[in-house]
């Protein structure tokens, strides 16, 4: 399955996703610039991404812990999610996300 990621410079990367990996793990495995400081424990907002139109409603809704962590994100928008909380499945083949700005 594919995960399509636009980096902070606008370059589009088509990554090979892995079933049951989080989007954060796929992005980190591809060596894209995502710090993901907590390692996927939903304890920071350093894997903040924007989900492309048409995909937001296909994701499992954000749990309260993720919503709370997004309060620490930079430039949070309606389509903001934490990549560590997006579990890759065949239903998400072709998912498109953009890396959000990093905090300074």
Topology:
Blueprint: E1 2-6, E2 12-16, H1 23-29, E3 48-51, H2 64-70, E4 80-82, E5 95-99
Parallel strand pairs: 1-5
Antiparallel strand pairs: 1-2, 3-4, 3-5
Keywords:
104 residues; five-stranded mixed sheet; single chain
* Biggest sheet character: 5 strands, mixed
Beta-strand percent range: 15-25%
Mean pLDDT: 94
Low-pLDDT regions: none
Order of helices and strands: EEHEHEE
Individual helix count: 2
Measure the end-to-end span: 33 Å
Q: Output the strand order for the largest sheet.
A: 2-1-5-3-4
Give the C-alpha Rg: 12 Å
Net shape: globular
Please report the total strand number as a whole number: 5
Helix/strand class: alpha+beta
Describe the overall structure.
With 104 residues, the chain is of the alpha+beta class. Helices cover 13% and strands 21% of the residues. It contains two helices and five strands. The chain has helices at 23-29, 64-70, and strands at 2-6, 12-16, 48-51, 80-82, 95-99. Strands 2-1-5-3-4 form a five-stranded mixed β-sheet.
Briefly, what is this?
The chain is of the alpha+beta class and 104 residues long. It contains 2 helices and 5 strands.
